Amino acid sequence: MTPRMPRPRRAFLALALAAALAPPAHAQPGAYPSRPITIVVPFQAGGGADTVARLLATHIAGQFNGQSVIVDNRAGASGNIGANYVARAAADGYTLLLTNSTITINAALNFTQGYDVRKDLRPIAQLVSSPVAVGVNSGYPARTVAELVSHLRANPGKANYSSCGNGSPQHFAGEAFNQGAKVDMVHVPYNGCAPAVSDALGNQVPILFSTIPNMAPHAKTGKLRMLGVASAKRLSFMPDVPAIAETPEFKDLDISVWFGLFAPAATPAEVRGRIEQAVTATLKDPKLRQDFQSRYYEVDALGADGMARQVDKDLSMYGQLAKRANIKLE
What we know:
Layout: H1 7-21, E1 37-41, H2 48-60, E2 69-73, H3 80-87, E3 95-100, H4 102-108, E4 121-137, H5 145-154, E5 160-163, H6 169-181, E6 186-189, H7 193-201, E7 207-211, H8 212-221, E8 224-229, E9 256-264, H9 269-282, H10 286-294, E10 298-302, H11 304-325
Parallel strand pairs: 1-2, 1-3, 5-6, 5-7
Antiparallel strand pairs: 3-9, 4-7, 4-8, 4-9, 4-10
Helix pairs in contact: 4-11
């Protein structure tokens, strides 16, 4: 008969086996990160998402035990190339996506390529946002949103408005304005915000829906008049500019360009939580908040749950607006 193994020996082997089958050490939140983290930006260097990513990368290293954070620009296909790359990356917390609300517009318009924003990516945190603004050439006969509505109603079929491009947040804001005010401005899409602002300055298309960073410098000089921002409330750093929602026709209008961080869907919850904690702690830094506000960004500091709600809200809002205004991306 084979002799039985002594009980202490059996207990030791059982513990050794359990240790061997346990998750690897990198899955434990206290050990993450143990090497550099890459933030993929799916747009060209120098744009809004790139600026936000580099500011975050500069400040967050202290929350990550001194590990470096690298920004990797993978531009193309309206942000889809970079988003798809991260969706297919190793789900270990070392490859993250920092993108803007274009990702929800793409999904609402069925313009994603190879990934599903709800199934293949997980929200980590919403960092900052900047609402779309409506402005006019300084010679245009409207000084408030209400006056713009009245002028458009008194002159049906005679007004055009510009945006930063077909299917952009600015385009959606213009169509939401049309629908809320029951007016019929004709959309003139541009290839970017800068040329749209240039033509507003030249009075070729005097009404524009644009980003605040592109519009604000000209509003300060008096060449453009910023009538309102498409957010639920006024911005903390621009309290004198009304929210469009203050005008009764637009009480639910809230279209912002937000910037958020995503991870591959299978990233362990404890690692995602560690990143969320680091990001929200970093966004409390007064110097970083000042840097963002000087660039016309409102600091949101929403965690994963808040950002998930924002994604769901956007998908519903943009989907409905696209259907009503027949907005499509070719």
